[in-house]
Amino acid sequence: MYLKRAANIFVLLGGNASSAEKMLRRVHSVDQRHELTEDIEFWTRMTQAMSLPSSRKPTKRPTPPVVDTPAPTVVDVFPTPVPVIIDVTTAPSSVAVPTPIPIIIDETSAPIVNDTFLSPAPTNAIVPSPAPMNSVVPTPAPIDVSTPVPTLIVTDIFPTPVPTPQASLPCGLTPEERATAFTDLALTITTQATLNDPFSSQSLALQWIIEEDALDPPVCPNVDDCKAIERYVMASFYFAAGGGKWDQCNAPTSNTTEAIQAANDACDRVVTPFPVNNPRIGAESTDAWLSPSDTCEWGGLACWGTQDNRNGCMDQLDFENDGLTGTLIPEMSNLENLRFFILEQGNTTGTIPTEYGLFNRLLIFDMDFNDLSGGIPEEMYNLSLLQQLDLNDNNLGGTLSPSIGQLTTLTFIQIDHNSFSGTIPSQMGQLNALRKFC
Length: 438
Known about the structure:
Shape: rod-shaped
Radius of gyration: 61 Å
Strand order of the largest sheet: 1-2-3-4-6-8-10-12
Low-confidence stretches: 52-60, 71-79, 84-98, 102-128
Largest sheet: 8 strands, mixed
Number of strands: 12
Mean pLDDT: 79
Helix content: 10-25%
Strand content: 5-15%
Order of helices and strands: HHHHHHHHEEEEEEEEEEEE
């Protein structure tokens, strides 16, 4: 019995029937049977422990090698990729990026994110049923890097435009506002009818100041000083006195640098250097008239110094034998600080405006060798500071007024070669400072 069971066990463990029979025939001694019996008992215990059925005929197979096969990865139908924290700064090569952890999501459709770094699912992947909505999504482990976290720069694709600084307006006025202000200023000393005449010297002067004057910065009509009104007055005088046909100091033909320089080169008129005690502006300047420079710098003009309380206002008008024509304009009387009015040896016609009696600071009025007509206006005898009255060689007439006795500072009177009539007023005897009368 033991030998037959041993043979069955031998076959179960890889032998065959013929080999077992040969083995049994070789067992004769008691000792061999005893050893075989022990072997049979050992293998019986082993067979029972392995729960192998005794009726099955075992087939000897080679034992396969033990391989540690990784568990299959469970992948959902719509895997949501684990966000990967990527630093824009190149990470060290030693930093390992973990394999994304599969996430079980609920059956509600989630956005699909294409991530090129997702590991492909194995072909034998088990697709689980969708997890409930309260499934826990594992948080990916952070990457330990030594490089600093980059600063997030937010760029606005529609940035708010930076306002462009507006260039400051001359005088704080638009061109239209400046034109209106200058017109209003001109109307304070010129009649509306005169300005309405497009060919009047005043209208031409106003148009030049508004549209053509290239002075930079320009004079401002809204500033309370003498500069704006005097530039308008002197421009009016230029057009009234035949400017453009003078022997010299005519205006530039344009505002180009070459034209301005050519006009300045054609002017060498300077004022008579009277012995005055105050500094002056333009006494030696010879710029062309209507050039883009201060009015005081035009040839034949000079102004008070800025340190005086006259603040650079007109002090002297001085032309002699320069081909001036036309008539005297009343606006000249607005040169309130003028001391020297000298227009000798010209071709000025017309009468002396009564407004010239307003020259409160006038010291010299010299217009000999012209073509003036009429008489000496009564208002002229109000010039209490006048020292020289030179009107010889004109076409003046009439009589001398007794009011001449009011000119107590007068030292020189020359009115010969005119057409005066009548007697010499007795009030002439009151002129104690008079040195010459003819």
